[in-house]
Specification:
Number of strands: 3
Strand order of the largest sheet: 1-2-3
Distance between the termini: 46 Å
Order of helices and strands: HEHEHHEHHHHHH
Length: 183
């Protein structure tokens, strides 16, 4: 007895005639990009007259699903940490500590968080963070980070095979623990 599934016909498409399928590399390329974002002088120093002649930039990378899941877990008890963690994880240059990010003024945090959401293709607000942590891959990343104490960057470096091995060891009573050199 066969079970009917609601699987779309492979020939059915919403794309324009002659459209080409994206390759895996094209789908993943956006997460590897780095964006130089101009920060207006009026945002940097809102109390001083604006001189936008000299452009000042920060270098940001888009957020990955795994990073959003970890941010969601880390900010579970304090939602005000979400924009700070987003900035900390996305900011490539200049490199700042979390404590330094916490010292930024609210207007700059709001500007940077909006820019990061835009380059990451996210809707503004915490909805995207909650959705990422609810996904299967997001949940796996949160489990690995919690169990092994890894940072979002360390978990993101794992291959699917490595993730499977480490996840299979979660339920093992005395499974091998990864060392720093295994990641």
């Amino acid at each position: 007895m066969s079970t009917a599934r609601n699987i779309p016909d492979a020939s059915a498409t919403d794309a324009a005639p002659g459209a080409e399928l994206l390759t895996p590399q094209e789908l993943l390329a956006g997460s590897q990009l780095v964006h130089d974002i101009a920060v207006p002088a009026s945002v940097l120093r809102p109390d001083q007259p604006s001189d936008d002649a000299l452009q000042r930039v920060v270098r940001l990378r888009p957020l990955r699903v795994a990073t959003l899941a970890l941010i969601s877990e880390a900010a579970r008890d304090d939602a005000s940490l979400v924009p700070l963690l987003i900035i900390k994880e996305s900011l490539v240059a200049p490199v700042l500590s979390f404590e330094q990010v916490r010292q930024m003024h609210a207007g700059l945090v709001q500007f940077l968080a909006a820019a990061i959401n835009r380059i990451s293709g996210l809707d503004p607000g915490a909805t995207a963070v909650r959705n990422a942590s609810a996904s299967a891959i997001g949940a796996a990343h949160v489990q690995l980070a919690r169990l092994y104490g890894w940072t979002p960057a360390q978990v993101a470096e794992l291959t699917p095979g490595q993730m499977a091995v480490y996840l299979s060891n979660i339920d093992a009573p005395s499974g091998p623990q990864p060392s720093g050199s295994e990641r």
